[in-house]
Design goal:
By secondary structure, the chain is of the alpha/beta class. It has two domains: about 120 residues, Rossmann fold (3-Layer(aba) Sandwich); about 120 residues, Formyltetrahydrofolate synthetase, domain 3 (Roll). It is built from eight helices and ten strands. A hairpin with a 5-residue loop joins strand 9 and strand 10. The mean pLDDT is about 95. This is Formate--tetrahydrofolate ligase. Keywords: ATP-binding, Ligase, Nucleotide-binding, One-carbon metabolism. It holds the Pfam family FTHFS. One of its GO terms (molecular function) is formate-tetrahydrofolate ligase activity.
């Protein structure tokens, strides 16, 4: 939101947040051997992670949210009802999504829920989590504290100096924070909704063409830069099964 919507002027009217009971049980303490075994308590414990995402979307970005629950055959009725009841108690629409098994028909309820929310608006309520005029250090700290639940950020003096220099040269650039996707913290083993941690910025990179600054917070592969017309556009499968356009 803070990058793409600033650069393009897009203003989403709603957010579809995808959740699975399996992921909630993971954040509730289950390991792989327990994902397909009913565990309502673990699922409820894992709701802290989902609640943090919902809070971020509603409070920090100002948008209404619909939770699409991707349904699996091993999800039990007790787990499903526990999740939907929790969402209802928070005033968040929760819809079972079964398009993987039923095709488009399995996503009709989700589509109707999204349309209902969008039709109720006269303009997009979306807001950004930080103003463009903030320096880069402040932008990163704002994301870390508001979105990730961190108490602060840290870095070496070299990183601080580089951020200060980039802030002068590219004062309105947004920030892209590259960190583990497995946790709100920078430690992939910390499940749920950890709070009070410190996000360490190990490195910063300038993506001048794309128009943002990347803060590297751990061992992670960043997205490669692509030209306007990447080579993948010419890859195709011919009627006889031959693949053309590869190097």
């Amino acid at each position: 939101v803070d990058i793409k919507c600033r650069l393009t002027g897009l203003r989403p009217a709603a957010v579809v947040l995808v959740a699975t009971i399996k992921a909630l049980k993971h954040h509730g303490g289950c390991n792989a051997d327990g994902y397909k075994v009913e565990n309502v308590e673990a699922m409820k414990t894992g709701l802290a992670n989902l609640d943090r995402h919902i809070h971020n979307i509603r409070e920090n970005y100002g948008m209404p949210v619909v939770v699409a629950v991707n349904h699996f055959n091993h999800d039990t009725d007790a787990e499903v009802s526990g999740l939907l009841d929790h969402l209802a108690s928070k005033g968040v629409p929760g819809v079972m999504a079964k398009h993987w098994a039923q095709g488009g028909a399995g996503a009709e309820d989700l589509a109707k829920a999204v349309v209902q929310i969008v039709d109720a608006q006269t303009e997009s309520p979306m807001k950004f989590v930080y103003p463009s005029e903030d320096d880069l250090w402040t932008k990163i700290r704002t994301v870390a504290t508001k979105i990730y639940g961190a108490s602060d950020i840290s870095s070496s003096e070299g990183v601080k100096k580089k951020l200060a220099t980039l802030s002068k040269s590219y004062p309105n650039f947004p920030v892209c924070i590259a960190k583990t996707q497995s946790s709100f913290s920078t430690d992939p083993t910390k499940r749920g909704a950890p709070s009070g941690h410190v996000v360490e910025i190990k490195e910063v990179r300038l993506a001048a063409g794309a128009g943002f600054v990347i803060a590297i917070c751990g061992e992670i592969m960043s997205m490669p830069g692509l030209p306007k017309h990447p080579s993948a556009e010419v890859v195709d499968v011919m009627p006889d099964g031959r693949i053309v356009g590869l190097f």
